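Inosine monophosphate dehydrogenase, pasting as requested.
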Amino acid sequence: MPLETKLTKLLGIRVPVVQGGMQWVGVPQLAAAVSNAGGLGILTALTQPSPDALRKAIRETRQLTKNNFGVNITLLPSINPPDYEGYARAAVEEGVRIFETAGNNPGPLIKFFKSNGCIVIHKCTTVRHAKSAERLGVDCLSIDGFECAGHPGEEDIGGIVLLARAAEELKVPYVASGGFADGRGLASALALGACGVNMGTRFMCTVESPIHQNIKEKIVASTERDTVHIFRTLHNTARVFKNAVSQQVVALERRPGGAKFEDVRDLVSGQRGREVYTRGDPDYGIWTAGIVMGLIKDIPTCEELLRRIEREAEEVIGGMAALVVPAKAKL
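Structure tokens follow.
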């Protein structure tokens, strides 16, 4: 029997799993594969060089799947900000009605999407930020624990406590993000009050993922100990793969007097990170990965992965239910 949660009903999907909106990874072939497999595929808007390019990506995705998919727009600190409004308008005009937002000051974007009848999932790393987004009218929240790839925030709260606190405080449904790769993880997230999970690193390591095969195999060969935090001293912490470049960044941050962004700019170049995925050299630049690598042992299709997660979650939930037994009658 399929799992039915507030997320599956809200998004019109079969499996309560959302693909994270990953830079350079959330492209039509992956988003469509996830949606075809029963989850929610996500296109990453800023992977596309312009709003018009996003339009083309949306149309391409529609040719690959008849199921629902969404678009991620992440608000990043930048000297020259991208045309967020243009990306948002293009996606809405192309008929997209599910959006994942992340980053600071999402209010104007959320207002625009809600005024156009869209569903908004906002990603947060703290309960207080989640409550703020709740007041802005989001339909669902994505709660990112310290285990996640990318930016886990600055408060270092692990998923178990963070998700349980979310259950205490939030009124709208939320999905769990950070550290999820299998059915056991999905079942645990549901037990903690979430209505599904968001997975990034796990979807990087699938057949339909657009990254180089060498990087997928590197993820399989890695463990939960193979990530590192950079930008801690710059108060913009990011969890990335532990390689020669990221360890050099950490060394610069730890030297007396610390480091300014200018000192590491060339090392952390987004272009170098993108070329990791195209060249297949895991040491070429900075690339994000979560500690969930320790749970990733293969490179399945998205269909195989979600079927397996669905089956495992059902088995775990059934096994947990069997732990509740009638009390013995008193003599």
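Note for the archive: The radius of gyration is 20 Å.
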